[in-house]
Amino acid sequence: MEYRIALNFEDGVTRFIQCRDNETVLDAAYRQRINLPMDCSDGVCGTCKGQCERGEFDLGDEYLEEALSDEEAARGQVLTCQMVPASDCVVRIAADSTRCKTGIGEYAGTLAGVETLSDDSLELSIDLDEGAELGFLPGQYVNIDIPGENEYRAYSFSSAPGETRATFLIRNVPDGRMSGYLRERAAPGDRITLRGPLGSFYLRPVSRPILMLAGGTGLAPMLAMLAQLQAQGCEQPVHLIYGVNQDDHLVKCEALDAFTEALPDFAYTTVVVDETSDHPRKGYVTHHLAAEMLNDGDVDVYLCGPPPMVDAVLTHFESLGQQPAGFYYEKFTPKRVEEAA
After folding, report:
1. Per-10-residue mean pLDDT for the chain, 341 residues long?
2. Hey, what domains does the chain have and what are their CATH numbers?
3. What is the model's pTM?
4. DSSP letters for 69-121
5. How far is the C-alpha of 338 from the C-alpha of 284, rounded, in Å?
6. What does the alpha-carbon distance between residue 142 and residue 107 come to, in Å, rounded to a whole number?
């Protein structure tokens, strides 16, 4: 039996390792050339302390309380030198990846297609090379090299982890380097390099209702999260508010409709900024973010959009005087940001 362990480092790098039956996370990491912080490896010093954010494990009783107190263990903190997984796990490591002598993973694939979803957004599909095994947590992103140029851009996955075809929603910026390549030069079969995965914005274990807030192509990580929820099952209600500038900027609604069929308690609301629109809900996402959606604070909020939207939502929560139990957000910053909350 082997378990897949995601190690999340402080600099946003995520590396996946395989942990054998009855093997500690520390030993598995060293076997795969990732040097996690460690002084003693005997459960005495506490140097290898981390936080298990998902999964089952056994710590045994061979460590000292000075290294890990009962209160810390109750909060999910672990000693990687003592932690023996009993399932796939996600472990946050209190160190940079460079300190642990591990770098960002590099993967290759071929361009499968580019679809124009609207004048505002494109969908990029990449077929990963056989054996690439690009693992990521739903919500994370990769840096994608622009073929023929010494530049890259960061994009969140809209596809689910484990798929051999990775998809991304990309803002169609008139003078954008990646947008220009996709509009003018991209051809099926072009070789593409991806580096990552990266980011601390990802789906946490579900223990309470979920509220997702997406602006424009900030919908991408939400699609990956919804696909994961469909795969693993979800007993909590999930609501998505999806805001755009204009009617024709609403994309992937067919996919969202499919999720309403696949997830028993999922619903979504669309919002359009354009005052001349005939859409039934106009304005910004914050205009349609009612206090009851926060469920008296017992809710996990996932927010992805351009900086003005993220800042507006943060201000809105402050004005309500109520903070969600879990609040995870990511700002994306293309050269031109025209969306707002």
Report:
1. 91 90 92 85 85 93 86 92 94 86 86 94 94 85 91 93 93 90 94 90 92 94 96 93 92 95 94 89 85 86 88 84 85 44 34
2. 2-93 (3.10.20.30), 105-198 (2.40.30.10), 210-331 (3.40.50.80)
3. 0.82
4. -HHHHHTTEEETTT-EESS-EEEEESS-TTTTT---EEEEEEEEEEEE-SSSE
5. 12
6. 10
